[in-house]
Amino acid sequence: MTTNRQFKLAKRPVGMVKREDFDFAQGPVGEPGPGEVLLKVLYLSLDPAMRGWMNEGKSYVPPVGIGEVMRAGGVGRVIKSNDPKFAVGDHAVGLPGVQEYAVMPAKGLTKVDPKLAPLPVYLGTLGMPGMTAYFGLFDVGQFKPGDTVVVSGAAGAVGQVVGQIAKLKGAGKVVGIAGGPDKCKWCVDELGYDACIDYKSGDLKKQLKAECPKGVDIYFDNVGGDILDTVLTQLAMHARVLICGAISQYNNTTPMKGPSNYMSLLVNRATMKGFVVFDYAARYKEAAMEMGGWMAQGKLKSREDIVDGLETFPDTLLKLFKGENVGKLVLKVAGE
Amino acid sequence: MTTNRQFKLAKRPVGMVKREDFDFAQGPVGEPGPGEVLLKVLYLSLDPAMRGWMNEGKSYVPPVGIGEVMRAGGVGRVIKSNDPKFAVGDHAVGLPGVQEYAVMPAKGLTKVDPKLAPLPVYLGTLGMPGMTAYFGLFDVGQFKPGDTVVVSGAAGAVGQVVGQIAKLKGAGKVVGIAGGPDKCKWCVDELGYDACIDYKSGDLKKQLKAECPKGVDIYFDNVGGDILDTVLTQLAMHARVLICGAISQYNNTTPMKGPSNYMSLLVNRATMKGFVVFDYAARYKEAAMEMGGWMAQGKLKSREDIVDGLETFPDTLLKLFKGENVGKLVLKVAGE
Description:
The structure is a homodimer. The first copy, chain A, has helices at 49-53, 128-140, 159-168, 181-189, 204-211, 225-232, 264-267, 284-296, 313-321; strands at 4-9, 22-27, 36-45, 74-81, 91-94, 101-105, 110-112, 148-152, 173-178, 195-198, 216-221, 235-243, 271-274, 304-308, 328-332. The first copy, chain A, is of the alpha/beta class. Chain A folds into 2 domains: 4-124 and 303-332, Quinone Oxidoreductase, Chain A, domain 1 (Alpha-Beta Complex); 128-278, Rossmann fold. In chain A, strands 3, 4, 5, 6, 7, 14 and 15 form a 7-stranded mixed sheet that branches. A 6-stranded parallel sheet of chain A has the order 10-9-8-11-12-13, sandwiched between helices. The longest helix of chain A has 13 residues, at 128-140. The two termini of chain A are 18 Å apart. The mean pLDDT of chain A is 96. Chains A and B meet through helix 7 and strand 13 of A and helix 7 and strand 13 of B. Strand 13 of chain A pairs antiparallel with strand 13 of chain B.
């Protein structure tokens, strides 16, 4: 058996993540015990949330310990199995971590079928980002047909799904916010957003006002910071502001910027809600069936931004925070 | 007929309200037209929200215009009536403005009975502040018996009611936040708060943690700023943060301080909700009956901080922002 290359967290990053925050190590390939399988990792999911997992302190999951393999979602092929639920050759998603091989309890893995969708899609639109979009918009956000929906990070892994499924369910208008003309063009031309505002050019507030003359019913926020603050000025009565993430703030060395226009919640009798997709685990199947159906009918598109090579991990992760990815950012670890 | 002394808004205040922001004028006493009454103002309600009404720009009510009588709630005696619903000698509450006499449409007034409660109480516990506490806590906040409830501005007009009615409905623990040892002692000794933290002394976060070991289920926020930010660090899962006001921020000359710890909403699957009591107008009676019953049984106390003399209006209003009032701040305009 070959060695197992792994990225371990070497220290807690200060500000932007750097290569030196990780130790690129070689370890042995483990042996699965009873109820465990050995997974050969094929694709890893790179997510904004990973930045938070590197920090010390309470969050919705424990932080990654110093010296531990960096936590990451991924999809791979079972190459040894000590559990009747998995046969060698099966494909499965879970949290293998940033490494080539992972010994994992079978109950932490979900079988997926590469014939139904390409494997990277199970890390994106049919994975956590898709589930986040689905339950965030429909359950937490109490979406109603006719709603004006605004989504930031519109071209990202979650955003690309939010915009499309809002349209599919009868939104009155769907407006994206993204960085740069290329992403915005893609959101409108390919994903079917009614409009997409490039926050890097022009006056976001003015453009939002023009695009959403009746105000924003649902704001699906993936970015925080100034964009959240600006959208708060354009809420409709009884608006729902969904706090999904705050990628603009994760690498701050100063305290996070709070939304100074939060009193707009009072004026507009609006609600700001935080949520974590894991709470919906028991209902993933329901979302996967509906979204898988849309994909099969060509109504829901999914784009993955795939970068090759485990060794590129720290730099590839940075693409997220620089806004360089379009669609779901995936690290290819091995050929299928 | 005597003249009518009035405070008119002379200019939009910058920062803290000053006497020069008002014009203390003398006008004629008006004549009520059809469907109107002439009210002799007895007591005026001084509220933090008045600061917002002086600013230009969209809010939940239009701003007071320059040269207009300053808007204020109040209670008075009907001295002329052109409407069958009111007889001379009736007492009524409404929005007469900061003046001695007001011509008002009868439909903007609600009759009150001075035999059931002292008139100033209709501006406090049985008025808007009481309604705000009641519908905020029970309706917006989805209060459940056993909840740990924290309220800021605990000794203020709204706070004094929130703390008491939370206890009456079976809160697990009610913790106030107020400025100074006297207010805190009063909250605990007289109102029955389980604890009250003096935010001006010691470490608020540490004290909150000690008083609310299971976290905060409902935070009823009247103050905003650093206190809101600190309480956000102590939320329980599925907490509700009620945005009722932000008195610490109303006189800012810089942008309002946003809550930098708002991502605690995500970690704790919590909700931040804004509300405006006027939306509950159709249900005021329900609240007044329950709270009036508690008052009659001596279970709900109400304190008013009454200052005498219309001419003191600008300085008396400042007591709110300096935290000098205990209970509901009322300006006495004339003897009953």
